[in-house]
Amino acid sequence: MKSQIFTLLLIICTLNNVFSQNTSKRHTISGYLKDSVSTENLISATVYNKATLAGTSTNQYGFYSLTLPAGDVEIVFSYVGYYTQSVSFNLKNDTIINMQLGGSVQLGEVEITANRTSRIQESTQMSSMTLPAAQIKTLPAFLGEVDVLKVLQLMPGIQSGGEGTSGLYVRGGGPDQNLILLDGVPLYNVSHLFGFFSVFNADAINSMEIIKGGFPARYGGRVSSVLDINMKEGNMQKFGGEGSVGIVAAKLTLEGPIIKDRTSFILSGRRTYIDVLAAPFIAMVNNMDSDVKIRAGYYFYDMNAKINHRISAKDRIYLSAYMGDDKFYAKGWYKNEYSDYDVEYKEDEKMESGLKWGNITTAFRWNHIYTNKLFGNTTITYSRYRFNTGARFESRVTEDGYRDFYFADIQYNSGINDWSGKVSFDYIPSPDHYIRLGANAIYHTFNPGVIALRDNDLKTDFGGKERYAWEYAAYIEDDIKITPLLKTNVGFHWSAFSIDGKFYNFLQPRISARYLINSDLSAKAAISRMAQYVHLITNSNIGLPTDLWVPSTPLLHPQTSNQAAVGLAQNFRENYEISLEVYYKTMDNVLEYKEGASFFDVGDTWEDKIVQGEGQSYGLELFAQKKTGSFTGWVGYTLSWTDRQFEELNQGKPFYYKYDRRHDISLALMKRFNQRIEASGAWIFGTGNCITVPIGIYYPENPLSNDYSYYGEKYEFSERNSYRMAPYHRLDLSVSFIKQKRWGERRWVWSIFNAYNRKNPFYIDVRESYHPRGRKYKFVQFSLFPIIPSVSYSFKF
After folding, report:
1. Residue 373 confidence (pLDDT) above 90
2. Quick check: is 370 in a domain?
3. Going by DSSP bridges, is the β-strand pair 467-481/486-499 parallel, antiparallel, or unpaired?
4. What is the pLDDT of residue 124?
């Protein structure tokens, strides 16, 4: 790692010498841009010189650097949803300006207007969207719980896997192909409640960015998307908090200064109380039968914590952590006692089962401003995901002094642990160049799954042993303004993976460009190559989190993808944006279970259960958005095709991916009527998922007895994923009633999920019915969620 840091610094020094020529009369303005109330960093805010329009944007820590010729300047600071501020002065030397913007979306009837905020047609980045936390929390919530990932599912090119789930399927990719970062730390499982909620507490989030294509070189490790989520840092000025109580969960967030203007904290927690709500019903069942007793429950919780300390004007350190678990438990007792002809009989049976999964992440970061043009960040992280499930049965029988004891126990454990170190630098020599470079290393420990079986006579373990691997990466990219009309982002990402004596490595070029057709319209294009060394083996037959994270091995090759995209982006009247993109993506070495294989095959190792093949996805995405004002929202449309091909599946012929969705439409609208009332609505429509269905049934003959029923009935299936379920569509509505109190703000939120009670398909089953002329079979659709009203109470002080 030291040699990598030395090499990076050498590159920076060389670049500095190159860009320093002929700049004797140029000076640099730098500093931080923050929210005036919460003191949170404003990420991707715009800073520019009004006379020349030369500008830059803030990085994810709110830092900016702008080098301009000496003389009179008017520096404008702007961010969507905030009042624009400007500073005029004569630039004679390097200057530090730390600016705080006010007038966020909390100003009630005041309509916020934007003045040349970050404009979609000017950025080289395409296929990406940035959402502030305030906008996320305005949309309708499922059972009163605001969910970050469900908001992303309203974007073109992004869809859910099924009814109510929080998984992301981006441009034909699977959920394991998304790099999901929480304060720079990868998360391997982002689901609560079997996928119906995500692990992200909206009250702890500052902002998030989703990238679907045109990936900057600084990101790597996955092949379909990047979701970069930044936590809040805590208010350095005053103590405050917010919380809510909903149908299934409650949460509370506290933040404030430890040392004013130097050290702050934020602590946020959330827990469901489904187990508490279910307790009276379980007690009623227990009272109905004195011989049988049961105890069961389910809950999840998560906690976010962060400490932010300013050592000096040039140095800051951060310590952040996340912890969350889902736990399901069930216990049952059966007792039977009697006396007969002087024989005493007593039987006690006990059975318990459990299911638990969750994440822990920690990150320590050090920001240092080396010069007013060079910003550095050093990060050390730890991440752990684990999944445990098991069941135990015990039986004790006493009969006339004779005692017998029997037990059977099965336990399954899997997970992944990561230790990581990373250094990165932002170097901004002029408004025409924004250079980023860095390197990182990850030490992986994979536990692909061990099944332990125990009983009175048996003690056996099945499954794979722990595997250890190193993953390395280095990158460099430059956002270059070649002419006033042409701007490009060019970079290279190199990554490598070492395991069991095998060394994989890939050089992944990335390039994107935009050309200004006029001041409001631009054409964009991007090409990127990605590589991925960790894989998720998904069992599509069950809804539990029994998916396994496994590494690339000498037998299992890394996944790779190549994606090209072109599009147009236009800005209307500063408040409206529209973009049109066409993309094509190929994927190599994607994974599927073999025919008939599943998580429950204890006799095979995970490498024996899977096959690798190819995939492709292509389509068109249209996105229109109104970003500011009392009425905001967006509409998105996606037309796409996605398929897979494996030599060992479907007779080697290509087949549609399960989540191939031909048409996808989303509409999200938000309206603030006055200081007391807000409303929002979201409508989505999607072509149905592809499934494999039985097309015939037969009864094989027993050659020894002519007994057809001996072998049972056998199904003949269609080609893989050749049947499409009914379309999915749903309307969600929400209205908020807000009142200002002496201590802060309270809010009642009334929501309706699936407002017109659409019976959306969850899965299809085959049912048999008897008929005088013989058996009849039919497909039966099962739906999950009807119309669901909910209410939540939230407060902020």
Report:
1. yes
2. yes
3. antiparallel
4. 87
